[in-house]
Design a protein that fits this description.
The complex is a heterodimer of chains A (501) and B (309).
Chain A lengths: L8 E7 L3 H12 L5 E4 L8 H4 L31 H14 L6 E2 L4 E7 L4 E6 L4 E9 L21 E4 L13 E5 L5 H11 L2 E5 L6 E2 L8 H9 L1 H22 L4 H17 L3 H6 L12 E2 L3 H5 L4 E4 L3 E4 L3 E4 L4 E3 L2 E4 L14 E2 L6 H4 L18 E3 L12 H21 L2 E6 L1 H15 L27 H7 L8 E5 L3 H7 L1
Parallel strand pairs in A: 1-2, 1-6, 2-3, 4-17, 6-18, 7-16, 8-9, 8-16, 9-12, 10-11
Antiparallel strand pairs in A: 4-5, 5-6, 13-14, 14-15, 19-20
Helix pairs in contact in A: 1-11, 5-6, 6-7, 11-13
Chain B lengths: L5 H10 L21 H29 L3 H27 L14 H13 L5 H26 L3 H29 L4 H8 L5 H23 L4 H15 L3 H5 L1 H14 L4 H15 L23
Helix pairs in contact in B: 1-3, 2-3, 2-4, 2-5, 3-6, 4-8, 5-6, 5-9, 8-12, 9-11
Protein name (chain B): Ferritin-like domain-containing protein
InterPro entries (chain B): Ferritin-like_SF
Organism (chain B): Isoalcanivorax beigongshangi
């Protein structure tokens, strides 16, 4: 129940002040729409890049591509910038586009409900506020909440526990015995840094990742100056990076001769950096490259071979108050356990209850796996635009390219709603069903669905996360908001609306 | 088809985990090892812990070959469990004062060393059905038999406690082993059977056979030297034929047939054609100086008698 008076009905409510939410605000603003509010659960903007500030945190896509095309930054310090710099860029967007007045901090949304009679969405927050708007951009973030592994006794450990997505910068690792659970994207960035600080590091691996070399270089001064003076030159670099990454789709999304070539490159990288046969064997993946997220690192393998580091591949039996017991019968004791176990990615639910037309619950409908239309809209939940909704994940290109396409599509949808003065625009169910049938048919032929277990899939193997194609194709399908795909209900005719519903 | 539900088996395996720390290695009873037993037992235990590791390395290779995630995870556990057995056996050796300087690994005999070398080089390249038949045989013939003999001779309650746990694990290993043997023999046509036999002409496998045969005879000699009945070893080996051949699918597996016939040769001491050359091979391999063998693989250094790390 809200404690305070509900807000007036805004045009748009944006949930989340990370890349997605701020990007949507900027594009709305640039389209001439100023009446929006951004709700942020924390006291700062930044989303994933505010929360993921662990040592070594950096982007896996070159910064010139991992930034908005409508907000270029000529000053990236490296090819792959660190989390701090990316966080700085996001904070800079607020100043550059004067978004401050629209931001409402410490507004953790607890529920979202479509009030059909009045044709607006109502968001309640943990702070007791109630916000209303005709359209909603839900940019709550796919990687917003830490994911914890299901290990017996996880809560019983008496030492320090840390999650990569909620790093405790005050904890002193010097001389400490540290466990790192997980060998995904976060872990391979954390381990090289921890090995420099801690007394002993043991890395618990369940599945070996494919690791490619990282072409990371400091940006030369002349390039920064050139980009500042001639933004077109930076755009050219961005285009080149985009098409290079696009070509990678042929290797990682589908099983092709290029897949073998990429596997060879990764194997050669492993062979060059790891001489010991057994360690190399332990670090050799057993699945097709691309099935799980492909990682890039030059310092992960060397870090594992430092005298104070050890890779443990025995299955974990349980965690107790002293450490981790593994199936080879040994209790590995630690001062600190770092969970680099990724995020609780919403594949079958929603971050908070979302109630659509006729009181339908989105989480209930997504129980078997999330589905949407073009990953942005969901039938029965009108005027709701999801950033990084179902099947919008890239495996080979910048997430921000996908995000920009989603944002622009959402802005077009909001414009169509406001321009037509409709009560709502709701995806026609048959259109959504057909879209998903085709999507799943295409997904069945991808490496993601080739048999390995990954965070892309539900427990039943349903892929609700990835888009089975090129970024170009993805952006293409979102380029035009086709009104014909939606049921438009007039604001002036509630009775007719009910009859139509 | 598999005669056991592998999903349920994986759950059972996860629920049956134990650790070295669950056993009080300093509890009374170590003094029950007699001075006469001590030297022979020391050699016996060293071989036993290395045999566990032959199984461990085999399971590691099978995990790579497993046709699905469930079986892969089961074999990953089995690999770790065999290592746990080796660790526990080292902890017993430590308890009985059999480790030279408290840290060192016991030395494996030369035939074991050759098998370990072969496994490390070639096991990952062998098809699942070959390993899937050889490993249950080794588990029955060596691991199973040796454990049984040990419990018949050693009176230390801590040893019995440890082996109660070890044998619990081994029974699951054998259950899965025979089930997979049936699975790989399921509904095979003549052509498929012939394809499965084809690796017999693979020189890498021939090398493996050349290491495997003397190992069995060497272990037989060791057991006899310990004063144990050779007949008991053969009875246990016959179990392979009895259990593996209980279903038509199991019998249709050509590798079951090959291993079974080989086991018959091993237990038939009157068969000079087999035993004279193999016994000679035991003698000849015994002459190979340790320095001629390549360095031990780094997984060897994972072994530890310490319950915590």
């Amino acid at each position: 129940m809200s404690k305070r008076k509900p807000s007036r009905v805004h045009d748009t409510l944006i949930i989340g002040a990370g890349f997605g939410g701020l990007g949507a605000a900027i594009r709305l603003q640039q389209s001439g729409h100023q009446d929006f509010i951004i709700l942020e659960r924390s006291d700062r903007v930044g989303g994933t890049w505010r929360d993921n500030q662990y040592p070594g945190a950096a982007c896996d896509i070159p910064s010139n591509l991992y930034s908005f095309s409508f907000a270029p930054n000529p000053d990236w310090s490296r090819t792959y910038s660190g989390a701090g710099e990316i966080f700085g860029y996001i904070k800079g967007l607020v100043e550059q586009f004067k978004l401050g007045p629209a931001l409402r901090y410490q507004q953790d949304v607890t529920g979202l409900r479509f009030v059909e009679e009045q044709g607006y969405w109502e968001a309640t927050t943990a702070a007791g506020d109630c916000w209303r708007a005709r359209a909603v951009v839900m940019a709550a973030g796919g990687l917003a909440n830490p994911g914890w592994p299901n290990i017996n006794g996880r809560e019983s450990f008496a030492g320090k526990v840390m999650h990569s997505a909620r790093w405790d910068h005050d904890y002193d690792f010097s001389g400490k015995k540290v466990a790192v659970i997980g060998t995904g994207a976060s872990a391979i960035q954390i381990v090289p840094e921890l090995v420099k600080q801690a007394g002993q590091v043991k890395v618990f691996q369940r599945t070996a990742p494919w690791v490619l070399p990282r072409m990371d270089y400091a940006s030369p001064d002349w390039a920064r100056k050139l980009f500042a003076k001639a933004p077109r030159s930076q755009q050219l670099v961005r285009d080149a990076l985009f098409w290079t990454h696009e070509s990678v789709a042929l290797a990682v999304i589908w099983n092709s001769p290029l897949t073998r070539v990429t596997e060879r490159v990764a194997s050669a990288h492993l062979a060059r950096q790891v001489k010991d046969g057994w360690l190399r064997r332990q670090l050799t993946p057993h699945y097709t490259i691309g099935c799980k997220r492909v990682l890039i690192s030059n310092d992960y393998y060397p870090a594992l071979q430092q005298p104070n580091c050890k890779l443990i591949t025995w299955p974990i039996d349980c965690i107790n108050e002293r450490g981790i017991r593994t199936a080879e019968g040994i209790e590995h004791q630690f001062d600190c356990i770092v969970f680099a176990t990724g995020f609780d990615v919403q594949k079958t639910g929603t971050p908070f209850p979302v109630q659509g037309l006729g009181g339908r619950e989105l989480a209930e409908e997504w129980q078997g796996g999330a589905q949407a239309y073009k990953s942005v809209n969901v039938s029965g939940y009108p005027n709701l635009h999801i950033i990084f909704g179902p099947n919008s994940g890239p495996g080979h290109n910048s997430a921000l390219v996908y995000m920009e396409a989603q944002i622009d599509y959402a802005v077009q949808g909001i414009e169509a709603l406001l321009r037509g003065d409709h009560a709502y625009l709701d995806v026609i169910p048959a259109v959504q069903t057909q879209h998903n049938l085709e999507l799943q048919k295409r997904l069945a032929r991808t490496n993601w669905n080739s048999g390995c277990k990954s965070w892309y899939l539900t427990a039943d193997g349903f892929n609700a996360t990835m888009y089975p194609g090129f970024a170009t194709q993805y952006a293409q399908q979102l380029a035009r908001f086709e009104l014909a795909d939606y049921r438009a209900v007039d604001r002036a005719a509630p009775a007719a609306r009910r009859a139509a519903g | 088809m598999a005669s056991i539900d592998l999903e349920k088996m994986l759950v059972k395996i996860k629920e049956s985990q134990w650790a070295l720390a669950d056993i009080d290695w300093d509890a009374p009873g170590a003094e029950r090892i007699t001075p006469e037993q001590w030297p022979k037992l020391k050699a016996f235990m060293a071989d036993l812990m290395w045999i566990e590791h032959v199984g461990a390395r085999g399971f590691a290779a099978m995990a790579k070959k497993a046709p699905d995630d469930t079986l892969r995870e089961i074999y990953t556990y089995f690999h770790a469990e065999e290592q746990r057995h080796a660790n526990a056996e080292m902890a017993l050796m430590k308890r009985w004062g059999m480790l030279e300087d408290g840290e060192a690994l016991p030395e494996p005999n030369i035939n074991l060393r050759l098998v370990i070398e072969w496994l490390d080089r070639y096991a990952d390249k062998m098809p699942l059905y070959v390993l899937g038949a050889v490993i249950p045989m080794l588990e029955i013939a060596l691991d199973g038999a040796l454990c049984k003999f040990l419990l018949d001779t050693v009176d230390d309650p801590v040893c019995h406690e440890a082996f109660e746990k070890i044998n619990g694990d081994e029974s699951r290993h054998l259950g899965v082993g025979f089930s997979v043997m049936e699975m790989t023999g399921y509904n095979k046509s003549f052509i498929k059977v012939m394809q499965m036999v084809l690796p017999l002409v693979d020189p890498r496998l021939l090398l493996g056979i050349a290491a495997y045969m003397p190992l069995l005879n060497k272990m037989r000699d060791n057991i006899v030297e310990m004063g144990l009945s050779e007949q008991k070893l053969y009875e246990v080996m016959n179990k392979f034929e009895r259990i593996g051949g209980r279903t038509a699918d199991g019998r249709r597996n050509p590798w079951f047939q090959i291993i079974k016939h080989h086991a018959r040769l091993v237990v038939d001491r009157g068969n000079k054609i087999y035993h004279v050359p193999v016994d000679a091979a035991v003698k000849i391999t015994g002459l190979i100086p340790a320095r001629l063998l390549p360095a031990v693989p780094s997984w060897v250094h994972e072994l530890t008698w310490k319950p915590t790390a």
